[in-house]
Amino acid sequence: MKKQRLLILTLFTALLLAFTGCSQSPETKESPKEKPQTQKVSSASASGKKDRPNIKILATGGTIAGADKSKTSTTEYKSGVVGVESLIEAVPEMKDIANVSGEQIVNVGSTNIDNKILLKLTKRINKLLASDDVDGIVVTHGTDTLEETAYFLNLTVKSDKPVVVVGSMRPSTAISADGPSNLYNAVKVAGTPEAKGKGALVVLNDRIASARYVTKTNTTATDTFKSEEMGYVGTIADDIYFNNEITRRHTKDTDFSVSNLDQLPQVDIMYGYQNDGSYLFDAAVKAGAKGIVYAGSGNGSLSDAAEKGAVSAVKKGVTVVRSTRTGNGAVTPNQDYAEKDLLASNSLNPQKARILLMLALTKTDDPHKIQAYFNEY
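C-alpha cells predicted for asparaginase:
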C-alpha cells in the first residue's frame, strides 16, 4: 500500500513539474503576448498615415528650384532646373506632417509665367481640390511674379480648401537656402484645418500672408514679401498662428470662372513719370489691349498728356484703371476722372490690378460694374 502511494505521489510530482515548465516556456506563453503587440504598433502607424492630410505640390520652377555650381551664389544662378521630386526629397520631414505628392506644371523662372500657364494651373488646382483625396495645394513659384499668380488663384480657385503659394529668395544650392524651410512651412499651413476658407495664401520667411495684400518689396532680401498696409494673416513659430481675417471676396465666392476659358484679354500696364505722353496709350490700343492699368504718381494722378491718351483709349472701347506707383495706399475715385470712365484700383498695386481687370473683362466691359469689382475684390 505504501509503495502504491509513493508511486502515485511520484507521478503527480512529475506531472506538476512538467506542467510548470510548459507554462514558463517562451514559445508557449511569451510569444502570444508579443505577436498582438506588434500588430497593434503596425495598426497605429497605418492609422497615423491615414490621419495626415493629403497635400499636392504643384511645381512651376523659380528660385526655389534654382541651382548653381557655387554655394555662395545667390543672384547668378539658373531658375527652374530642379524637379518637384527633388524638392520633396530635400525635405523628408514633410512626410511626418502630411502625405505629400508632387506634380510638375512647368519649370520656368516666374518672369515667364504667362496667361496660358495661369489658366493651366488654376484648372489643375480646381480638378484636384474637387477630389476627396486632396486636402490642400502647395504651389512652388518664382518670387518675381509670385504675388500675381497668387492673386489670380485667389480669384479663380473654386474651393475653400487651402491653397498656399511658396518660393524662396536663394537657390537650392546656396549655403543658407531658404527654400526647404519655406516649403516645409507651406505644407504645414496647407494641411491645417484653420487655413480653410482664407483664400490663396503666401508663405515665406515664417510668415503667412493673404495673396490679396502681399507684395515683393526687396530685390534680394529673404524677408522681401510684406503686407505693409494690411498686415500678415499669421505667423509660424513651430506652431501656426492665424491673427487676421480676410474680408475681401475670394476663391469660391467670386464671380470669376476659368473652366471654359482658353485665353484672357490683353491688359497692359503703363508707368507714370514726368514728361510722359499719350503715345503709350495709342501704342497699347494699336497692339490689341482691351484694358490698361496706369501706375500713376501719388493717388493715381495722370499728367495732361497721359490723360489725353487715356480718354482716347476709353473712347475706343478700352478700359483704363488708375493705380499708383507708390507701393502703398488706396487709389480713390475722383469725380473728374470718374466722369471720363477712368476707374480706380482701390488698394491693388498695378500688377494685381492687371490680374483683376483681365478677369473682369471676361464678364463685362461696363465701367460701373468693373469699378464695383475693384471695390469688392
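Residues 26-51 form the longest helix (26 residues).
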